[in-house]
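From the methods appendix. Each design record in this collection lists the tokenized structure first, followed by the designed amino acid sequence. Records were kept in a plain field format so they could be parsed without special tools. The example shown here is representative of the layout used throughout.

RECORD:
FOLD TOKENS (158 positions):
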């Protein structure tokens, strides 16, 4: 590849997880800003901004800076998302652009389905991404989402 060529990697993955709670409770963890911030945004970084407007056409802005000790300490990640489709307690479809220090590194489509399963709910995430000049993105994003779903489980247990 020459200096003028760029690399874009495409990846699709599906994560499925069963939660022992009804759809309304699980869905609310995605729809309520304070609740979503706890499992999705908080972590081992400094939150610069977290805003949600949970409606079709609304969006989500999440910006954070890595703390000292992280391999890219001081770097800033920004996720700008738009809710493309919402069906209460059934489905959320959103698109996201992720940037690192102001440079786009990924454009993603995520579909969350909330399916009744006995007394609980199956959450099915279908994630499609185009990773721009970020060859590790296709490996890192599935791991990140798996960890986030673990955090969601923990949040709902409290």
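DESIGN:
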């Amino acid at each position: 590849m020459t200096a003028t060529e760029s690399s874009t990697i495409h990846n699709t993955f599906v994560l499925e997880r069963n939660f022992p709670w009804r759809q309304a409770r699980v869905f609310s963890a995605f729809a309520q800003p304070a609740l979503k911030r706890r499992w999705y945004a908080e972590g081992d970084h400094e939150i610069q901004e977290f805003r949600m407007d949970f409606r079709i056409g609304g969006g989500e802005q999440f910006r954070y800076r890595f703390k000292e000790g992280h391999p890219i300490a001081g770097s800033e990640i920004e996720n700008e998302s738009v809710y493309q489709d919402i069906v209460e307690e059934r489905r959320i479809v959103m698109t996201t652009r992720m940037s690192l220090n102001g440079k786009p590194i990924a454009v993603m489509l995520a579909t969350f389905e909330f399916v009744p399963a006995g007394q609980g709910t199956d959450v099915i995430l279908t994630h499609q991404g185009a990773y721009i000049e970020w060859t590790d993105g296709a490996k890192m994003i599935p791991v990140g989402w798996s960890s986030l779903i673990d955090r969601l489980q923990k949040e709902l247990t409290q």
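APPENDIX NOTE: Residues 27 and 88 are 8 Å apart (CA to CA).
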